[in-house]
DNA sequence: CCAACCTTAATGTCAGACCTTTAAATGTCT
DNA sequence: AGACATTTAAAGGTCTGACATTAAGGTTGG
């Protein structure tokens, strides 16, 4: 683990990279303890604040955790699915909001990925997954729900569908695609009629999953995508007209 | 932007969270300049090193960039696809390697997602995407290629396939799934015969994409998944036997 | 034998200083 | 007047040294 003093990059960035590489390559295994900050400072020939900045960078990526007190220190962190979900969602959300990704593009990606899960979910879903889907459908059909609550329930429904595939890697990948769409979906005002249509489509998907009918679930998702795209187009058109006037 | 002095969490973590929330919520827009480190220290009533640690956390997530010199400072960063890819790949790779995700699970997720892209890619791929796929196939059929180079070419082939869908969000999501598999694939020793089989399957997929035949591309990917799973099972069985003996 | 205390090794935080970079402002020459 | 060189100030990057806080482990007294 050495650094290049001639590089233009920050020392803390270089040190973080050196340690990160050691972790990713497997040289530092899970729960291994790094040298203390003072020792790292000596090894890299920098001061302790610089080492600390490097460690904070790694902590931000959940690569390490720190513990105070005697026999404390920085330890290589086992990246949990929870943490990975969180990072995935944050990154995806920012990517969508900052790069003016069109609703159409994001929506297409989301449903394409979700359709990939549907056959697996239809095959393997537990009664629990199905119950969650039904519960969310019920919530969505209640009157007086705010648009945001409706969207949140929509996300919960789709997460249950994805989780039904019983593949944590798939759930992780989809978390970003589904959750990051929520801010975009929140721009849509759902009329009572469009809510009814969505609830109906959700019900069809849940029925298909219950019947272990993968193809029908895929078809249901395709219909839902078409409906969602229609809805968005309507909202965008209306907004454009009001701007013109 | 206020912090809770009674919290058990690090001050730098709290400050990072406060600023991150401001960015994600849109209160701080792209290219907005944060107050200087000294000003932030005053606002949050902490010292400059603490502020710096918070800023490094954000820099690690590519949420901000810093610039030295007069009129420099920390600016909200537009998250580029490149940076997002990188983070996605790092996180996915660690998630797979640290949680002893089975090859089977990861492989299933990867191909499920990739099949979701195939129809779109068959529809929209440019001549360039197709040329990349053909070039990688050619590289894969050359003798004397190391297993690692073969795997790298395999990844390049699949990325071209995914990019063919012309949906950057999809490419971003798939980057993690495809690249993170590489370390797992590297555990497999490819015999000449299995390489031939893979090249043949790749050729079939490329042919389907060239013919704008989505369903055939999906079928090709399914065959490739089955073959890859077979290969892995063989390797794992052989390894288990040698451990017993 | 167990509980309260102390020691100690870490991280967390602070204050102040100095170095380096950078762009804007100023000055000078043609 | 305009182009080029110089100065300057603002801001991040780094260092030093110190103190506060925490928690594990040993020690001591009941």
TrEMBL record, chains A, B:
The alphabetical list of record keywords is: DNA-binding, Transcription, Transcription regulation
Q: Which domain of life is it from?
A: Bacteria
User: Which Gene3D superfamilies does this UniProt record tie to the protein?
Assistant: GntR ligand-binding domain-like, Winged helix-like DNA-binding domain superfamily/Winged helix DNA-binding domain
Tell me the ranges covered by the HTH gntR-type domain, including all copies: 9-79
Q: Which GO terms describe its molecular function?
A: DNA binding; DNA-binding transcription factor activity
PANTHER family, sorted: GLUCONATE OPERON TRANSCRIPTIONAL REPRESSOR (PTHR43537:SF24), TRANSCRIPTIONAL REGULATOR, GNTR FAMILY (PTHR43537)
**Protein name as annotated:** FadR family transcriptional regulator
Q: What is the lineage of its organism?
A: Bacteria, Pseudomonadati, Pseudomonadota, Alphaproteobacteria, Rhodobacterales
